[in-house]
Design goal:
Blueprint (H helix, E strand, L loop, with lengths): L1 E7 L6 H9 L6 E7 L6 H11 L3 E5 L6 H11 L4 E4 L5 E2 L3 H12 L3 E2 L1 E6 L5 E5 L4 E3 H6 L9 E3 H4 L10 H13 L1 E3 L1 E9 L9 H15 L4 H27 L1
Parallel strand pairs: 1-2, 1-4, 2-3, 7-12
Antiparallel strand pairs: 4-10, 5-12, 6-10, 7-8, 9-11
């Protein structure tokens, strides 16, 4: 079974699309654990409507706003599946996502995988595709994060349950920790999910993201100054490359 980890906060605009994309999966042995982080809109009502349709959808209500990292970790603690997958409330999966990825993991005996993904806007219009790499190791990941959280799946049986730290780029830090354990892994080059760009998303603040990245090198990974500068140059280079590629595809 796959346990799908979903934090939700004031997600009424998109959460139905997200749940529908899970219900449409060709692989059906899953549970979805949605942790509502004290939403003030009708997010809970929408979730409860879908819980009546499929009892594999489970809701955890937090009694105070704790943030998406706490919500993800709470869901992970409750997860019963052999595999952990992540899907935020405003993103969606393609129908064959779980089937293709699990088959890939089993065939190649992998503990952790990821895939390419499409980028969409708030109205679900296609913008571009993020093409990931077919192979990644710890040092390569330090240069740039090629793993979209909505595409990541890891095996609890192989590496145990892993929890996120309450810091910027918490998913990226988790991937680094996993790759320290398993050394390297493989990804699927075909897009299997849709990542939604929001006008006021945290990831849109490039300066703050750069500061988080530097702190990860120096304070989390304890990398020396000169090596941190080396990896940070790659981070900036790939960030500019990704931005320019995205703009080119949008204009097309």
């Amino acid at each position: 079974m796959v346990s799908i980890i979903t934090p939700a906060y004031n997600a009424s605009k998109f959460i139905a699309q997200m749940i529908e994309s899970v219900l449409a999966q060709t692989y059906t042995n899953w549970e979805m654990i949605i942790v509502d982080d004290m939403s003030k809109d009708n997010t809970v009502e929408i979730i409860e409507k879908y819980m009546k349709i499929n009892n594999n959808i489970k809701l955890v209500k937090l009694h105070k706003n704790c943030g998406h990292v706490f919500a993800r970790n709470r869901a992970t603690k409750k997860a019963k599946g052999e595999y952990i997958a992540f899907l935020d409330a405003d993103d969606t999966w393609l129908p064959n996502k779980l089937e293709v990825q699990l088959q890939f993991m089993i065939e190649h005996n992998l503990a952790f995988t990821y895939s390419s993904y499409n980028i969409i806007d708030e109205n679900s219009n296609y913008l571009s595709t993020f093409h990931t790499k077919s192979f990644i190791g710890y040092k390569e990941l330090l240069k740039t994060n090629i793993i979209g959280c909505l595409t990541a799946i890891y095996s609890v049986k192989k590496i145990g349950k892993m929890y996120m730290e309450n810091i910027g780029h918490e998913d990226y830090v988790l991937w680094l920790r996993i790759l320290k354990k398993i050394k390297c892994t493989m990804g699927i080059c075909q897009p299997l999910a849709n990542y939604r760009i929001l006008n006021k998303s945290v990831s849109s603040n490039k300066f703050k993201a750069a500061l988080w990245q530097w702190k990860i090198y120096r304070e989390i990974e304890n990398i020396g100054l000169f090596k941190s500068i080396y990896y940070f140059i790659f981070y900036v280079y790939y960030g500019i490359k990704k931005h320019n590629f995205g703009n080119k595809r949008i204009k097309e």
